UniProtKB/TrEMBL annotation:
Residues 242-282 are annotated as: Disordered. One of its GO terms (molecular function) is nucleic acid binding. Residues 265-274 have a biased composition (Polar residues). Residues 76-242 form the Integrase catalytic domain. Involved in the transposition of the insertion sequence. This is Integrase core domain.
Amino acid sequence: MKLQIARVHGENFGVYGARKVWLQLNREGHRVARCTVERLMRELGLRGVTRGRIKRTTVADPAADRPADLVQRRFAPAAPNRLWVADITYVSTWSGWVYVAFVIDAYARRILGWRTSTSMTTALVLDAIEHAIWTRERDGWYVKDVVHHTDRGSQYTSIAFSERLGEAGIQPSVGAVGSSYDNALAETINGLYKTELIKPRGPWRTVDHVEFATAEWVDWFNDRRLSAIAVISHQRRWRPRTTLNTQPSTPLGCHTDRSPDSPGRFSSTASPSPDWSRLTRR
């Protein structure tokens, strides 16, 4: 079992703690208790990563026209392609700063578009939104009337960016400067990106190294990563429903009276198996 635990931990950027390693093992059909995973990870010296504090990167243009806040901190749309959120983060390299822009579908928690650059200009966010539009249209989705929510950075309130949104039929929305809560979902994705990829794999040499690693991380994040709300996120991948080949029963070893996604205490008696069928949608 130690080999399987080390494999799952290593295949997922070394960021999973015991809970997610346990979830992944059970999804693969390995019958193991969570407390066993916790104990074996301690013996192996493996642990998950923890997020640091978010730093502000937004620089507002006080003279720019600002669209209204159409979101009002409501980041739970009823369907995909209703709300996209976007933001810019940064990476320190030996050759200077690299800036990374992401566009995320708020329903699926899926990165639709991204771009890296050595300058934090309007071209950076334009490339990211073009990538997102291309991704959705390639998959047969219409982008008209999507709400695109950002902070009030000058790149997002620029004339060129606003015109491109208008051409695509996308509605702009902005939050308040300096308040991470007004763009909380995008800030969360940035934090995960820094915690799961940038910090553990640094120091970084050039923009090319950051770009290649980001492409790998985005692919993993979109299609394989278990999130803190694993059940919900896997139901929202908008992909054909698949069925696992195995249906794990109550694991051997110690037992717990909690489901994979709810707190609880360990119990000395066996409890009903979690509803693993809820994890079959991707």
